[in-house]
Each structure stands twice: as structure tokens, then as C-alpha cells.
Amino acid sequence: MKSSIHKIVVSLKRYLLLQRQYVVLSFAEKLTMLLSALVVGLMVLALLLMSLLFVSFAVAVWLSDVLGSLVAGFAVVALFYVLLSFMIYANRKRWIADPIANLVASLMLGDGKRNDNKTEV
After folding, report:
1. CA 62, 64, 70: angle at the middle one, nearest 5?
2. Angle at CA 83, nearest 5°, toward 101 and 77?
3. Using an 8 Å Cβ cutoff, are 107 and 33 in contact?
4. CA dist list (Å): 94 to 41, 85, 88, 97
5. Is pTM beyond 0.85 here?
6. Per-residue DSSP letters for the chain?
7. Distance separating alpha carbons of residues 43 and 32, to the nearest angstrom
8. pLDDT tens for residues 54-71?
């Protein structure tokens, strides 16, 4: 009797230890996925912003030729960015907050799209 209870207690301790290790490893995996997505996103954003800067200068110089004034060309480009900023601010929840929340939730909760031969425990 004592031996079977002892085996159950030992098995329960082992099970709880394995469950704890599983939770830690699962969290580490999800954190790694989130951080890698963040790093890749930031790198792509930096490259896109540099490209946008050069395109903006090119458009401003082209507009200055069309309008006959360097100041007017840069002012039109600046006005475009001010209007774009207002539009982004007005739609910040739908365009920024919701997609980020969905990404984090899908990474943390697991959306079932990964198929890397994991077995359910």
C-alpha cells in the first residue's frame, strides 16, 4: 500500500516537473518567435524608411522643377506627409493596434498554423 502511494507521489512530482519544463520551453519558444518577428520588422521598417527618404527627396526636387521653386516642391511633399500623418493617426487602432494585438495573440496562444510534428500533451 505504502509502495503504491509512494509511486503515485513520485509520478505526480515527475509529471509536475515535466509540465513546468514544458511551460518554460513553450514560453521561451514563443518569446523567441515574437522577438525575431520584432527584429525582422524593425529591419524592414528601417530599410523602407531610408528608401522613402530618398524617394521623398527625388519627388521634392522633381516638383521644384515643375513648380519653379525649390521651397514649393519641398512644401508640397511636407504637406503630403502631414496629411498622411493625420490619416494614420485617425486610423491608428484599425491599422496599427489591432494587427499588433492579433500578431502577439497568435504567437502567444498558438493559432494551429505551425506543423512541425509536435505532439499534444
Report:
1. 135
2. 120
3. yes
4. 19, 15, 10, 6
5. no
6. -HHHHHHHHHHHHHHHHHHHHHHHHHHHHHHHHHHHHHHHHHHHHHHHHHHHHHHHHHHHHHHHHHHT-HHHHHHHHHHHHHHHHHHHHHTHIIIIIHHHHHHHHHHHHT-S---S-PPP-
7. 16
8. 999 999 999 999 999 999
